[in-house]
């Protein structure tokens, strides 16, 4: 079990397990799902594995707790060869249905035990309890620490640009079912480009930190997932230190700064415009100084490398990456404006030959034909879709605006608009 929020259903199945154990003078061993196993089919638990382990191993019905590293019970069953396997009937359908069939088959092959399936306790659900708890909100520290936990638990993370509370709600609630698993976005990207554009301003760091923090506050009031903040160059070292402290205090999980100097120009313009890359030592100083001044261990500073954008070459990008990690960077964002992902993959493989653990972040705006799953298979941890909600909203709004003018009424545009009742029901408390 996950055992994140212990409820009467958990107690009931533990009691039943103990009763069967007493019949054979045996022991009750609880397979506790790891964070990685849970994240493979639903959201991270509130408590990490060690915290949940402390809770269940102190239950009077349990003699031993062992990790369950995947949804598969195979390894633990082969290891223990149990007389009984106890599992509630909740796995008769859903993501664990196939695993139930595998358990029955394995027990028959090993000729070692019997599957006991107590009736699932009606009227209570861990999933529903989690949803109810999340609807109340999330504390600042809990949100801040989520990103690091997610990076350890799953790969890759899918992060979606959110430039308003409404776009963040869309990002938070969007999901699809694939092969019995729920696929959803793991957090938000606060983009300087989309934040500027949504205000009708150029993407040249014209929006103040205070204005951007107001947007984040709006997002945080109605969501509970982690947010990564795009800080462009980060500005002067002395100023960046205060930015880090402010973001950390607000509950932002990570900040990304790019190794450029001067007036900000969008990276996808490359050498079509004049852009200057920072000196390695100077950028390392900025990273190191900020790391020394942050308060928690959970806040992350991610260094964005512009070498490939500015055609400085692969070796320059790698030299910078290792230098930035040595200076204290918690992650590396490698950027490219090519239409294929080859240089990103080449960088990742070369980096991973020397560094197996530092998270790698990519923004596949240009090389958009490769899937997040494929990127993850190369060792990339975070995939950011950096501007898509704003770009999509512009086309939709322009289409409706022109349609109203063309037809001199809104009737023809109704099928392109969200229903009024859906809007009223979207936000709790409206109706």
Structure in words:
It is built from 17 helices and 16 strands. The strands form 5 sheets. It has an 8-stranded parallel beta barrel, surrounded by 8 helices. The chain has 431 residues and is α/β, with parallel strands linked by helices. The two termini are 37 Å apart. α11 packs across α12, α12 (280-293) runs parallel beside α13 (314-327) and α13 (314-327) crosses α14 (342-354). The model has no long low-confidence stretch (mean pLDDT 92). It is an enzyme of class 5 (isomerase). Keywords: Isomerase.
Please summarize the sheet with the most strands.
Answer: 8 strands, parallel, barrel
User: Which whole number gives the mean pLDDT?
Assistant: 92
Strand order in the largest sheet: 5-8-9-10-13-14-15-16
Q: What's the number of extended β-strand segments?
A: 16
- Termini, distance in Å? 37 Å
**Which structural class is indicated by helix and strand composition?**
alpha/beta
Strand content range: 5-15%
Rounded to an integer in angstroms, the radius of gyration calculated over CA atoms is 25 Å
Number of helices: 17
Fraction of helical residues: 40-55%
Q: What's the shape?
A: globular
Question: Would you identify the regions where 5 or more consecutive residues have pLDDT less than 50?
Answer: none
């Amino acid at each position: 079990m996950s055992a994140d929020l212990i409820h009467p259903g958990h107690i009931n199945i533990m009691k039943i397990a103990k009763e069967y154990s007493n019949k054979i003078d045996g022991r009750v061993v609880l397979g506790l799902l790891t964070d990685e196993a849970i994240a493979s089919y639903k959201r991270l638990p509130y408590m990490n594995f060690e915290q949940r382990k402390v809770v269940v191993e102190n239950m009077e019905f349990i003699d031993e707790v062992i990790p369950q590293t995947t949804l598969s019970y195979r390894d633990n069953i082969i290891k223990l060869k149990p007389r009984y396997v106890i599992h509630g009937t909740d796995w008769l359908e859903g993501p664990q249905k196939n695993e139930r069939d595998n358990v029955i088959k394995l027990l028959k092959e090993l000729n070692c035990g019997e599957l006991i399936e107590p009736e699932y306790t009606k009227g209570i659900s861990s999933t529903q309890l989690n949803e109810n708890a999340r609807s109340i909100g999330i504390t600042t520290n809990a949100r801040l620490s989520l990103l690091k936990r997610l990076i350890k638990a799953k790969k890759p993370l899918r992060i979606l640009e959110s430039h308003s509370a409404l776009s963040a709600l869309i990002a938070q609630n969007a999901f699809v079912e694939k092969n019995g698993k729920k696929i959803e976005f793991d957090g938000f990207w606060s983009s300087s480009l989309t934040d500027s554009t949504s205000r009708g301003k150029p993407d040249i760091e014209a929006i103040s930190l205070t204005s951007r923090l107001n947007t984040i506050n709006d997002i945080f009031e109605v969501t509970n997932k982690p947010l990564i903040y795009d800080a462009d160059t980060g500005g002067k070292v002395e100023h960046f230190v205060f930015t880090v402290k402010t973001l950390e205090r607000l509950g932002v999980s990570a900040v990304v700064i790019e190794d450029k100097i001067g007036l900000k120009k969008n990276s996808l313009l490359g050498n079509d415009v004049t852009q200057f890359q920072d000196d390695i030592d100077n950028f390392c100083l900025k990273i190191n100084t900020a790391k020394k001044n942050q308060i928690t261990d959970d806040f992350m500073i991610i260094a964005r490398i512009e070498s490939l954008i500015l055609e400085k070459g692969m070796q320059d990008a790698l030299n910078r990456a290792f230098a930035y990690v040595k200076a204290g960077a918690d992650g590396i964002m490698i950027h490219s404006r090519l239409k294929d992902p080859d240089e990103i993959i080449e960088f990742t493989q070369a980096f991973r030959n020397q560094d197996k653990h530092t998270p790698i972040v990519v923004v596949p705006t240009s090389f958009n034909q490769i899937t997040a799953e494929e990127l993850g298979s190369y060792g990339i941890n975070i995939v950011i879709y950096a501007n898509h909600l704003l770009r999509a909203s512009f086309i939709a709004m322009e289409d409706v605006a022109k349609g109203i003018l063309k037809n001199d009424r809104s009737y023809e545009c109704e099928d392109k608009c969200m229903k009024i009742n859906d809007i009223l029901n979207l936000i709790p408390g409206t109706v």
